[in-house]
Amino acid sequence: MPFCAPRRRGLPARVPVEHLLEVLKDLNCSRVGVKSIYERFRRLAPTGLISLPKFRESLGLLGLFGKLLAESLFFAFDYDNDGFLNVVDFTRAVLIMLIGSDKRRLELSFRILQTPSRQEAGTISMKEGDAPPEPSGIDLKSFTRIVNDIRTTRNVLTGQSVPNPSPEHVENVFKKNSSICIDGVARITQHDFERAVHCSKEFVELMGAPCRRYAVEASIVPGKLPVEISPACRPFTKCGSEDFNLRRQRTYINRTTQHRRRYHDSDTDESLPLKSQGVSRPWLSPRRGLAVYFGHERWNDVINVMVGLGLTARKDIGDVTRELIPADFTDKVTLSILPDTISGLMPSLKFVEHDDRHQFRRDDDPNKIIFTEHAPLVFKRLRKLMNLSEDEYIQSVGPEHLVGNMMLGNLSTLSELLSEGNSGALFYFTANGRLVLKTVTRQTAEFVQRWLPSYYEHMRDNPQTLITRLVGLFSITQCKRGGSTTYFIIMNNVFYSSVAIHRRFDLKGSWVGRSVPLHERKDHTVALKDLDMVELEEFMELSESRSSALFETLQRDVDFLSKSMLMDYSLLLGIHYRSMSDDDVNWQQDPDPRQMSCFMGKNRDRLYFVGLIDVLTEWDVRKRLEYAWRRLRTFNNPGVSCTPPERYAERFVSFMKSRVA
């Protein structure tokens, strides 16, 4: 009789009740959130356990280059000290990093940073069930190792060669933020760590996190109509003499830019959202996808994009002040990115610049990434036109602070998956909420390249334009996927503001199907539509001079879009009401009169935020056929959205004027 090995049991399809209850009693999160992470874990570890090598693999490039990072995260997550991560360990760690309270995130962060000290003490290798002694803190040797590993990994990801901090500086910062323990050795204790994270700029800089945004969530007073905060993009607090208004502004960057989240448990503000279905524009919808965390199917994609964006943003492209020539609009920079695990003492990334003719080859290394930036000089000029400095752009899209923030128990520097619509487009926010990344089709990318000269001219000649500001066009080819290429654009976020948005509208000037179901109107993060605005008797209350200036700008923009044979765009309108405001707003002072995207109501009781979005829909054969079909279906109803550009523009402006009081 043949010998049969014991059958390996896998995780059940549904979350075991005991696992669900254990996580729910430990964290204030939704059942749906736990179930979503459970599904990710099942795909990552069908047998129910993740070893250190498997966990390092799940981190992608970070696991390949950040050996200490992978070990620190793994052993910090392994609460039962058995050398494996089970589903409860994994779920708890992910939820703490995404939605955990200040206290829980600080506790986890300290465990992460303590790993080298615990390894030295031998407490990590103890048998399951043993009670390890309470670690007393982080000594200078472990602290130095952490700082140097963070800097080394950061250099690999950014392609830079920034030297490690001097031992004297590291020791000086350590001494300022440590205590003498009972055995006479200086260590950073839990209390020391919390104080350093809040108050020591030097400490946080050594940890590789942005000095302007620290690792703990700021205290936020809930408003009368609260706006949800993206847990993975939480603001940081800072002690010292920093201007209070600046801190409040950073707090509300995420409250207003991350408003699209709707939690599935109404009794908690810290539920993890589900992936949305059928939503193509995340800034209009509360539905939101899961944050892209380690183990997520798109984790490696996000890391690769951040690395590529950081490299191209830092690349020297010569004289940026010269006059643009036609070749600048078709120019592109192509880099290949390939992990190098053979040469040198440690793994690294090989960055090679290629000419415009470089393409994917069948014999390419499957780990190779080909990253292309289109019209780099033109988009650099466009970023300057919107007052986005190159430093802020790099900090927004690059991986500079990725490792440091993860060591501090925070996933805030990672872009986050927002929604996946019928078009298959994916949306991501940058961590500071100022920019949005959106995947587009090859046809759309080619149109942007053709349209770019006239678009640049319009943006240059009309600094107060309301049209979406495009700041980059890129493509990424992944050889392991047979050379498939993904195109994406980077654009500004209309609701990047310092106050909460209490009501928002998506206006097209059409009326067929342009309303939101009554049960969804109660959610203030849902963008209402044209018929809703009429039914609610909502008007933009503008002074005569402001109304004249607004429609002069709007008419120029719409005329430009019409001449470009574009249609189906929307006016995104956000309103901040004085009666609901908990923000420090000087209601007696008007915003910059030259700024058309933000203005005060004539009665000084409202702030308006406006922008033209979805401006890349061409009046092509497909739209012409759709127009003909809709005319037949609606008996030639003039209120359908799909209409020829000139007629669309006239109807659009006419409706906007009718909503001004």
UniProtKB/TrEMBL annotation:
Pfam families: PIP5K (PF01504). Residues 313-660 form the PIPK domain. The keyword Chaperone does not apply. Residues 257-278 are annotated as: Disordered. InterPro entries: EF-hand-dom_pair, EF_Hand_1_Ca_BS, PInositol-4-P-4/5-kinase_C_sf, PInositol-4-P-4/5-kinase_core, PInositol-4-P-5-kinase_N, PInositol-4/5-P-5/4-kinase. Keywords: ATP-binding, Calcium, Kinase, Nucleotide-binding, Transferase. One of its GO terms (molecular function) is ATP binding. The keyword Transferase applies. GO terms for biological process: phosphatidylinositol phosphate biosynthetic process. One of its GO terms (cellular component) is plasma membrane. PANTHER family: PHOSPHATIDYLINOSITOL 5-PHOSPHATE 4-KINASE, ISOFORM A, PHOSPHATIDYLINOSITOL-4-PHOSPHATE 5-KINASE. This is PIPK domain-containing protein. It comes from Babesia bigemina.
